[in-house]
Amino acid sequence: MDQQYFKEYYHLERVNWWFTVRRRILRDQICRILNKPKGIQSLNIGAATGTTSDMLTEFGEVMSVEYDQECCDYTQTFLSTPLIQGSITELPFANNTYDLVCAFDVIEHVEDDNKAVSEMMRVCKPGGHIAITVPAYAFLWGEHDVINQHFRRYTKTELLGLLKNHPGKIVYQTYFNSILFLPIAAFRLIATGLNKLKGPKKENIESDHAIFGTEGFFNNLLAGIFSIDYYFLKWGIRFPAGVSIMVFFKKESE
C-alpha cells in the first residue's frame, strides 16, 4: 500500500461517523467501568492511524501495536506515544504488564481468535481489564468484511465464549450501533442478494465507507443517529442487538 492510502485512512478515522462516535462511546465506557482511571498503563492493539491510542492517553501511558508494517511506519511519524509492529497472537510483552488491554475491531481479522484473546489475557495485570469490540452477526457479512479482510462476525454468545475459560469475569457486555441496525441490515442483505443475482464477483469491491462517503450531509446524519446509541449507553441502557458488540472483562486478581 502506498502513503496515499494511509493518508486517506488517517482522514477517515478522524471524520467518518462510525469512527468518531465509536471513539466517544469507548472513552465514556472506559471512564465509567474503570471509574475514571488516571495514571494507568494501556495497551492498544491494532492502532491503525492512532486515534484510539490518542484517546487512551487521557487515562495514562499508552503502548500501541500495529500488525501492518507499512501502516506502523506511517503512524510512527506523528503519533506522540510509542508504537511497534507486532501481532496480537504473539505480543512482545511480559506477563501481567498492562492495566487495560484493548482490541477495538481487531480479533475478527485474526484466524486464531482464541490465541489472540489468550495473549491479551497474558499481558493484562491481575485486576486489570480487557476491552474488545467486534462486528456482529454472520448474516451481515458483505463486501465491507471482504475488503477489510475479516475472518468472521460474532454473536455476543460467541464472543463471550472466547473469554469464559479465563480467570476473571465479564463486567460489561452489550451490542451497539443498534439504532441503525435495521437499515444497515437491510442494506447489507439487499446488496448481498443483488450481488448473487449479478453472478461472478466484481473485480473492484467497496467498503461501506467508500459507498456512503466520509464527509458532508449524509456523514453528519449518520453520526447524529449513531450518537443516540452513545446517550443510551451513557444512561446505562444495553442493546439486545446491533451491528457491533462491546465487552469488558476483568482479570482475576492474584
Explain what you see.
This protein has 254 residues and is α/β, with parallel strands linked by helices. It has one domain (3-251): Rossmann fold, CATH 3.40.50. The protein is built from 10 helices and 7 strands. Strands 3-2-1-4-5-7-6 form a 7-stranded mixed beta sheet. The protein is globular, with a radius of gyration of 18 Å. The mean pLDDT is 93.
Short description:
By secondary structure, the protein is an alpha/beta fold.
Index terms:
254 residues; globular; alpha/beta; Rossmann fold; 20% strand
Main-sheet strand order equals 3-2-1-4-5-7-6
What can be said about the biggest beta sheet?
7 strands, mixed
Count of DSSP helices? 10
Which architecture would the CATH scheme give at its second level?
3-Layer(aba) Sandwich
Task: State the order of secondary-structure elements, H for helix, E for strand.
Answer: HHEHEHEEHEHHEHHHE
What is the terminal-to-terminal distance? 44 Å
The overall pLDDT average reads 93
How helical, in percent, are the residues?
40-55%
- Estimated structural class: alpha/beta
Output the CATH homologous superfamily. Vaccinia Virus protein VP39
**CATH topology descriptor:** Rossmann fold
pLDDT < 50 stretches = none
Q: From the alpha carbons, calculate the radius of gyration and give it in angstroms.
A: 18 Å
Net shape? globular
Whole-number count of domains: 1
Strand content: 15-25%
Give me the count of strands: 7
